[in-house]
Each structure stands twice: as C-alpha cells, then as structure tokens.
Specification:
Shape of chain B: globular
Number of domains of chain B: 2
Distance between the termini of chain A: 49 Å
Shape of chain A: globular
CATH architecture of the largest domain in chain B: 3-Layer(aba) Sandwich
Order of helices and strands of chain A: EHEHEHHEEEHEHHEEEEEEEEEE
Distance between the termini of chain B: 42 Å
Number of strands of chain B: 12
CATH superfamily of one domain in chain A: HUPs
Strand content of chain A: 25-35%
Largest sheet of chain A: 6 strands, antiparallel, barrel
Radius of gyration of chain A: 21 Å
Helix content of chain B: 25-40%
Largest interface: A-B, 21 and 22 residues
CATH class of the largest domain in chain B: Alpha Beta
CATH architecture of one domain in chain A: 3-Layer(aba) Sandwich
Largest sheet of chain B: 7 strands, mixed
CATH topology of one domain in chain A: Rossmann fold
Number of helices of chain B: 14
Radius of gyration of chain B: 21 Å
Number of strands of chain A: 17
Strand order of the largest sheet of chain A: 12-15-14-13-16-17
CATH class of one domain in chain A: Alpha Beta
CATH superfamily of the largest domain in chain B: Type I PLP-dependent aspartate aminotransferase-like (Major domain)
Strand order of the largest sheet of chain B: 2-8-7-6-5-3-4
Oligomer: heterodimer
C-alpha cells in the first residue's frame, strides 16, 4: 500500500512519514510549494521556505523515501490568498489555513495522489480518524494543546477514507522523541506560528504589498458619535482593541465593519457579546447533526456548549453563554464531546 | 558518511543529459592520476607545482585548438554559470563603465540574472523579441546595438527547448552595423551537439560547461577573444591573466579537456546516434499520442533535445510516474526548492502557464544506447496514458 506524505519540513510531518514507513507503507514525501514572492522568489521566513523544503528533503533521504516538491503557487494564489484579500475587503476575518486544507491539501493533493496510485494522503495534523462499520469518524488529537481538528472540520467521508494523521495519537513531546529516536534533523525545530504567506510581518503590510489600496472612512461609536477617521477597513478585525486611532478615555473594541459604507463601528466590551451565529457552507463529517453540541470558533479556542438547529443547509448556533468577538468569515467547528461532526463559515452574528 | 543514499543504485533510462551527463570514461581515465599524484598549486615554482602547471597549460592548448582559439583566449571557470556571469558582468563593468546589455528573454538565468544585476548598477538592458518557436530576429537584435553597448548575448542552443538560435546571423548583423560591438554566446548546450569554431561563429565571448558533455561538474570555460576588455568577477592572485583569480582545480580542468577531446573524436557518430534516438523517441511517442506537441517544431533544433507538451497531463505528476518506472527526465525549469516552475522560456514564447505545466524535456547524450529512444517513448505513453 502506498502513502503520500505531505511534508512541510517540520517535525510533525517528518514523524508522520517515519511512522508510516515503520508500519510498512510504501511512502513518498511531497512538499507543497504554496507561496512565492511577487518576483517568484522563495520566502525566507514563515512556512514554504527553501530551507523548509531542504529539511523535508533531508528527512526523506534519511527515511530512504522518494521526495518531490510540487508547485501549487497558482492555485494557492487564486484560491487561498485571493479569498484572504477578499475577506478583508468585505469586512470578514478569514481563516486561510482552513481554506488551504479545503481547496488544496484535501482536494488537489488528494487528486494527485490518486493519479499516482497512492492509496492514502498523510499529514502531520494532530487529529485522529477511526472507522466504524465503514463510516469514518474524526476526533481531536490526544494532545489538547496541539489539537488541530478545528482546521479539518470541513472533511467528509470521501476524504477521511483516504487520510491518515499518524501523530494525532501522540503528544507533541512524544512526536519529538520519535524524531529524536530516529535522528531526524527536525526533532528540535520550533513550531511554525505565522500564516505562511504573511510571514513575520503583519497582515496589513501584506495586504498593502498586494496592492490593496486603503480607503478612508469614519469610525463611529455604537451610540452614534463620530469618533474619528480610519485609513481602510482592512486595518480592523472584529474584537480589535489596539490601533484604533481614537481615544475617549475608555477601552473601545471594533464590533462591526460595514464594507459597503466603509464604516467601522466601535463600542464597549459588552457590545461584543454574541449569542447566536448563522453558519453557512456547512460540511458534515458523516451526516447533519443538530441539538446540543460544542462549538469552537478559533483554532486554539475553547469549545463552548451550544444548541444547534438546521435550516436550509444553514446551521444556527445558539451559545449557552454569550461569546465575545466572533467575526464573519471565521470557521466554526462543531463537536460532540471529542468528536468532530462538522464545520462551516460564520456568516452573521447576533 | 557522504553516501548518495541507502538502497541500491537505481538503474534508470537516463534522458536528462541537458541537466547533466555522466562522466565519460576518457575523462575519468585522465583525471584519475590527479587524485593523489598531481597536487601542487600550479602557480608555484617548484617541480611539484610545475607538474600541475604543465597539465593545466596542456589542457588550455588542447581545448583552445578544439574550438579554434588561441590558448590565451581561454579562461577556466567554475562552470557554465560563472562563465556567463563573467561574460555579462565582466563586459558591462569593463573599463569602469556601466555598459548596456542586449539579450533575449529565453536565455539561461545565468545570463538574465547577471544582466538584471548589472541593471541595478545602471546598465541598460534591452531584450530582443522571441517568436513562438523560440527564435530571435538577427536584424532586430542588431537594431538595438549602439555605441554604449557593452555586450550582446544570444545563446547558441536553448537549454529547455533545444531550439538552435541563429547566432551566426546575429553576429553578422551586429558586426555589420557596429564592427566594434562585442557578442557573447552561451554555448553550454549548443557545443554538446555541434562543433564550435569561434572564428566561424564570429563571437567574442563563448561559455562552455564540462558536465554537459561528459566532463566533471564545477568546471567550465569562457572563451575571450584577444583584445576584449573584461572586468574580473573574482579578484585575488591574478590567475588566468587576471581574468579569474583562484587556485585552479587542475583535476577538473583535465577532466573537461579529456571530455572535449572525446566528444570531438566521436562528433559525427554522436550526432547521428543521438539524433536517431531522439527522432525515434518523438516519432514513436507521436504514434502513441497523436496530440503530442513538439516545442520549437518550426525552428532548427539541437539533435539531443526533445521538449514536448502532452495535453491534459500535468508534468509534475508524469515525472513522478516516470521516476517510479525508471525513466529520468525533467520539467527543465525548477526553482531552488526543486519544484517545477512555469518556465520563463516558455512564457517568453507566449505559452500560457497552464500549457507550460504540460511540458517535459527529454535530453539524450553520449551514453544513450540504441533503442532507448523508442523504449522511452513507449514508457512515457503508458505513464501519461494512466494520468488521463
């Protein structure tokens, strides 16, 4: 049986490849080149650097598996980066990692694995897949600090049938000790933190670099007062407190962005409270589920009790307790205890 | 500790000679004594040094005679890229100037990036237009030449597509308009299949890389016509008449000279054999895949290269299948990380990125055996078919 391992050059996917090899799979390593600078140059920081690919290549050599770098920069630019920019322009808060998983890793890469007769695609995500009477189930990784099931919540049966997440059964420390035991050079490599294409700069600089021209507009208080002028709605995300450029003697938070009018509305912390969200583009691991579920709306956030009802493919999620600073565009994942049941994109908050 | 990897050495059908050719046995036979026995620095004065110096100068005499040059016109370099860099930057910056550069967008990156570097210091770079078949118009190239032109650089044969450019006509056109203008050609690929006579070509500068024709990697040469001012890139001990400092890699130079001699020895047979296999590859593949498109089909092509587009087959995927099936080929254009990129050459020829991603290069060489062309074609057709 053949396994294609998506190797980023980090320790998790290095160990994933090693574990598959130990289990007797015929393993191939692939680094997906997703991003390059405007002149085609490889990034020097963040993910997808030449040095990351080099680490992956050296690990693959150590494991004695074939290794390739495949170029997905065009798909990534049009699908993920384009969506990222659009989201900011329309006052939403994007989650590019989810989008990359959805449009590239678990669609394009899976299709390419198929074309090459690879039975499964393997990644270094901290999540678990089990099969139960021919149905596949998706669970949180055993390490609560590293769990990445949130960014996988858009996966369905067809994809899960062909995916393996071998480090989902390990804690990060255990992953590192496997890498140590096998002498992999990535054993002590720090985790990547940044959005790969934004790198160490901030997303505002990135947007400016992509030619997103800021348009001025008013900053208005919830109570109707005009507080000042902003230099582009893309500088703001819901819940933002710093860098508002207005001072009225009390802490203020962005609680609404109107892209059409170009208006940023701020208010007190209490104005950020959200009791209910509608979630579109719902994807279900197995079948639609409603009722009492746990909802998680940030990659490393807490899952909170909620009551879910379904209407015309839209999930209405009512939180048991008010939540703060939910933004349109964010992914919301639904869990039944430790099990992922589905996920979608927040469209409205109330 | 420095092993090439575990497992057995793959026995592959090797059709990536344009990337690098295996070392010719004649080259290794000449190099072998230098492993331990000829270790002196050729710039020294004692008997040990003299042995190295003599070998070096014998090589210079030999390679000069093979391309109809004077030995003093040969500058040994650390490969083809360095030779191209020296030609472009060395000319642009010669005599304290920031001279203008005329080239074309299908040149090797060693030329293009050098030109871009010079441009950041004030050199004006002009790019001649390229046709859909990858050719330049000699008259157009000549029309760009002016009194401040430091160098015109047009390659002999394209490393990706295998298209043979009209260098002779470019030289004639340029020199007719401006007799003092200096013309460089990157003959790294062209020399593999064609004898080079620098006077017949008429060029002033010409780059070669040993490993493309069965010499070792990391060594090449720049032919510099006598009386051509050139600023060095590497300053230091003044080797190569001040044009390239640094202690010589004598063993590598010996390997290059021996490989050149071996190539010239079998020049006609090489052309016949390699072209036969290349043509058999293309005709067999075309029979099996009638929608095959040969790049540069309307232009003269070097005999050793087949650059083809297989519609609806992504080149990265086919390369993996071919690798697994034991055939080494290439997408011809790769980034530092090794990913196939959309080639600047195909882009300049007007090909869309989507079509460029369906292109592969198969390149034949001195070790290509009879029947390999047709065998490779059947293999490619089978693997490409599986991807459709």
């Amino acid at each position: 049986m053949r396994a294609l391992v998506a190797m980023s050059g980090g320790v998790d996917s290095s160990v994933a490849a090693a574990l598959m090899k130990e289990q007797g799979w015929e393993v191939m390593g692939v680094t997906m080149k997703l991003w390059q600078g405007p002149g085609g140059e490889a990034p020097t920081a963040g993910c997808c650097t030449v040095s990351d690919a080099e680490d992956a290549r050296r690990v693959a050599a150590r494991l004695d598996i074939p290794y390739y770098v495949w170029d997905y920069t065009e798909e990534f630019m049009s699908g993920v980066v384009g969506g990222f920019i659009d989201d900011y322009l329309t006052g939403r808060t994007p989650n590019p990692c989810v989008e990359c998983n959805r449009t590239i890793k678990f669609s394009r890469l899976l299709a390419h694995a198929d074309a090459l007769d690879y039975h499964v695609v393997v990644t270094g995500h901290y999540a678990r897949v089990t099969s139960d009477g021919g149905r596949y189930r998706l669970w949180r990784g055993v390490d609560p600090d590293k769990d990445q099931s949130y960014v996988l919540s858009m996966l369905g049966q067809d994809q899960l049938a062909r995916l393996c997440f071998p480090v989902g059964d390990l804690t990060k420390d255990q992953t590192r000790s496997v890498a140590d035991r096998l002498g992999l050079r990535t054993a002590r490599k720090p985790d990547s933190q940044d959005i790969c294409f934004v790198g160490q700069g901030n997303y505002r600089e990135f947007l400016a670099g992509q030619g997103v021209a800021p348009t001025q507009g008013p900053i208005i208080h919830q109570d109707g007062r005009l507080l000042g002028v902003h230099h582009g709605i893309t500088n703001f995300t819901i819940g933002q407190r710093r860098g508002l450029g207005v001072a009225v003697g009390e802490p203020l938070y962005v609680n609404d962005i109107d892209p059409d009018a170009g208006v940023v509305t701020v208010g007190n912390r209490s104005d950020l409270a959200v009791d209910e969200v509608t979630v579109e583009d719902m994807s279900w691991v197995d079948r639609p589920v409603a009722g009492s579920l746990l909802a998680q709306y940030r990659a490393h956030g807490r899952a909170v009790p909620s009551e879910v009802s379904l209407e015309d493919g839209v999930a209405i999620v009512r939180f048991a307790e008010s939540q703060e600073a939910l933004a349109r565009g964010q992914t919301l994942a639904l869990y039944l205890d430790e099990e992922v049941v589905g996920g979608g994109i927040i469209r409205t908050t109330a | 500790m420095f092993g090439p990897g575990r497992g057995t050495i793959p026995t592959m059908l090797y059709l990536d000679h344009a990337a690098s050719s295996p070392l010719r046995p004649e080259a290794w036979a000449a190099m072998e004594p230098f492993r331990l026995d000829v270790y002196g620095n050729p710039s020294g004065s004692h008997a040990i040094s003299r042995r190295a110096k003599n070998a070096l100068e014998d090589c210079r005499d030999l390679v000069a005679s093979l391309i109809n040059a004077d030995p003093k016109e040969i500058v040994f370099t650390g490969g083809g890229s360095e030779a191209d860099n020296l030609a472009i930057k060395g000319r642009a910056f010669a005599e304290g100037r920031r001279g203008a550069i005329i080239t074309s967008p299908t040149e090797h990156d060693a030329v293009l990036m050098s030109a871009e570097h010079c441009s950041s210091f004030g050199s004006v770079v002009t790019y001649a237009k390229v046709t859909a078949d990858g050719l330049v118009d000699p008259a157009e190239v000549a029309s760009h030449v002016a009194a401040d032109t430091a160098v015109v650089s047009i390659m002999m044969g394209n490393n990706e597509t295998g298209v043979r450019l009209p260098v002779e006509e470019v030289v004639a056109g340029v020199k007719a308009a401006h007799p003092a203008a200096i013309v460089h050609t990157d003959a790294v690929q062209g020399y593999v299949s064609e004898r080079v006579d620098v006077d017949a070509l008429g060029v002033d500068l010409l780059s070669l890389a040993a490993h493309k024709f069965g010499g070792p990697k990391g060594v090449g040469l720049l032919y510099v016509r006598s009386g051509t001012p050139l600023a060095p890139l590497v300053h230091g001990g003044g080797q190569e008449l001040g044009r390239r400092s640094g202690t010589h890699n004598v063993m590598a130079v010996v390997g290059m000279a021996a490989a050149m001699a071996a190539l010239e020895e079998e020049r006609d047979a090489f052309r016949t054999r390699v072209m036969g296999e290349r043509d058999a590859f293309e005709s067999t593949l075309n029979e099996l895949m009638p929608d095959l498109v040969v790049t540069g089909a309307g232009a003269p092509r070097m005999v050793q290269t087949s650059h083809v587009r297989i519609p609806r087959v992504r080149n990265e995927m086919l390369l993996v299948r071919l690798d697994r099936a034991g055939l080494a080929a290439s997408a011809a254009s790769a980034c530092q990380s090794g990913a196939a990129t959309v080639s600047h050459v195909l882009e300049a020829m007007g090909m869309s990125p989507a079509l460029a991603r369906e292109c592969l290069r198969f390149s034949f060489g001195w070790s290509t055996a009879e029947g390999e062309g047709a065998r490779a074609a059947r293999l490619v057709a089978g693997e490409a078919g599986a991807l459709r």
